[in-house]
Design a protein that fits this description.
about 170 residues; mainly alpha; about 85% helix; globular
């Protein structure tokens, strides 16, 4: 949460300091931990369904496996968009439910951009796991910055296209 908050501040062209990291961890840390736990459980269930479906050795099992695989892909895409929206300084005070909805609208509204960003995130994380500790920290900070730049502008565009009544409920 701290690195993504700093990335969002930089994307919004606000000054960012280490104090922002600490404040973000205090403010968003407990909620981020809960969201991460829920996502981990959901990813575990979906991934288990992939293997169970493949082991079934029949067309119904393959369908279940394929749906679970796409569920995992969709979950990763959603989370790539959600984290910058969650800590966006321009959306402070907006309810978590509305941030979740806005991230979902951005994924649905700009799927190709989100797929491209998700591929970049996955590749950078995969490459950075080889030299591990130092590079992982730098990679996560870099991804927070890239995600903030791409996602926040995309979400602003999606939000601008919403009807005025819907936009008022998001604030």
């Amino acid at each position: 949460a701290g690195l993504y908050r700093m990335g969002a501040l930089i994307a919004r062209e606000w000054p960012a300091t280490f104090g922002d990291f600490v404040r973000a961890m205090r403010r968003f840390g407990p909620a981020a931990l809960g969201i991460s736990a829920a996502v981990a459980i959901l990813a575990f269930v979906l991934t288990t369904n992939i293997f169970v479906g493949l082991a079934a050795d029949n067309p119904l099992g393959w369908v279940i496996s394929a749906m679970a695989l796409w569920g995992d892909v969709g979950l990763v895409m959603f989370m790539v968009v959600f984290w910058p929206v969650f800590v966006d300084p321009d959306r402070d005070g907006v309810a978590l439910r509305h941030k979740l909805g806005l991230a979902g609208l951005a994924v649905i509204g700009r799927p190709l951009r989100v797929i491209a960003l998700t591929i970049v995130v996955a590749l950078l994380l995969a490459v950075s796991t080889v030299p591990f500790a130092a590079l992982v920290i730098v990679s996560v900070a870099y991804l927070a910055l890239i995600s903030g730049r791409v996602v926040l502008s995309m979400v602003d565009q999606v939000e601008a296209r919403l009807p005025e009544a819907r936009r008022a409920r998001l604030r």
